[in-house]
């Protein structure tokens, strides 16, 4: 019986997740596998490479750098977050992503993307942390209207959160029967229909299945929250979530706000770290029996 780590996205709400993951690493809490969506993918990969502090470091350092994210980038390239700077310059030169440690860690790491032609989720296992794996992480975090469609092989991909925002059912289906789930919305949150749907419908006219996935995303999201509540009650999931809405912009440029959300994640994890460790150890004990 494997124990998984499921990481929701949420743009810069993902700084909460980064804080949680740093605490897990500092306390030596190890899981069999992890799956990240959008920000959960691009930040969560540092858990497998065991790079404590990397996410808060490079985000606070470059959040005001126009090469990192700007509307100028969007107009020039079709990407709000620069593909070159975010997925090459930073991980390869400025704050190096440890692909060797990533590859050597036996923990599985999956990312979720949405196939724009079918509207279905695509689950990709990142094995080495190489340039193609980074491209899959980029695709997972490529938000509609704010990023170009990412082409990998025969796939055309965008934000994994459209098709499967919290992929706990996928993880259950491949043997992760107990899961630590990191959400970026507080308890009681109910997702509403996307206000940008008319714009998305016009922009992605050639991809009707993708548009329909956007249109009913809120229903699938809320149903998944109901499923997670049931898992929590039966002891099959341990959920870490912010105590109140994080209230941070998708493209937050204030390092103080980024650190506030990161420190919130740290505080929530520190308070519960003994319970988290007990949940993970129970799972390991059950697997060994």
UniProtKB/TrEMBL annotation:
Q: Name one GO molecular function term.
A: hydrolase activity
Ranges of residues in domain PNPLA: 5-172
Keyword annotations from UniProtKB, A to Z: Hydrolase, Lipid degradation, Lipid metabolism
Extent of motif DGA/G: 159-161
Question: What superkingdom does the record give?
Answer: Bacteria
Stored Gene3D superfamilies: Cytosolic phospholipase A2 catalytic domain
Q: Where is this motif: GXSXG?
A: 36-40
Task: Kindly identify the residues recorded as the active site.
Answer: 38 (nucleophile), 159 (proton acceptor)
Q: Which GO terms describe its biological process?
A: lipid catabolic process
The record's SUPFAM superfamilies line, in alphabetical order, gives: FabD/lysophospholipase-like
The reply on keyword Cytoplasm is: no
Under which name does UniProt file this protein? Patatin family protein
Q: Which organism is it from?
A: Faecalibacterium taiwanense
């Amino acid at each position: 019986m494997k124990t998984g780590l499921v990481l929701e996205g949420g743009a810069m709400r993902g700084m909460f997740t980064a804080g949680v993951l740093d605490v897990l690493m500092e306390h030596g809490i190890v899981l069999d596998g992890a799956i990240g969506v959008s920000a959960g993918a691009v930040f969560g990969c540092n858990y497998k490479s065991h790079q404590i502090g990397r996410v808060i470091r490079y985000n606070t350092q470059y959040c005001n750098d126009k090469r990192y994210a700007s509307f100028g980038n969007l107009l020039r390239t079709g990407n709000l977050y620069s593909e070159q700077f975010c997925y090459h310059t930073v991980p390869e030169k400025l704050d190096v992503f440890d692909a060797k440690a990533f590859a050597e860690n036996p923990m599985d790491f999956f990312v979720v993307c949405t196939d724009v032609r079918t509207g279905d989720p695509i689950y990709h296992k990142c094995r080495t942390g190489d340039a193609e794996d980074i491209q899959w992480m980029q695709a997972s975090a490529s938000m509609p209207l704010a990023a170009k469609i990412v082409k990998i092989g025969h796939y055309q991909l965008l934000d994994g959160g459209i098709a499967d925002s919290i992929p706990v059912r996928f993880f259950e289906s491949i043997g992760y029967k107990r899961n630590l789930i990191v959400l970026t919305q507080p308890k009681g949150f109910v997702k509403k229909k996307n206000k940008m749907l008319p714009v998305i419908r016009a922009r992605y006219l050639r991809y009707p299945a993708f548009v329909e996935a956007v249109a009913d995303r809120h229903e699938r999201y809320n149903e998944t929250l109901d499923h997670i509540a049931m898992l929590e009650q039966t002891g099959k999931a341990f959920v870490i979530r912010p105590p109140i809405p994080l209230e941070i912009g998708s493209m937050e440029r204030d390092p103080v706000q980024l650190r506030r959300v990161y420190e919130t994640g740290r505080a929530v994890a520190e308070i519960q770290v003994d319970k988290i460790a007990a949940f993970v150890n129970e799972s390991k004990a059950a697997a060994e029996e």
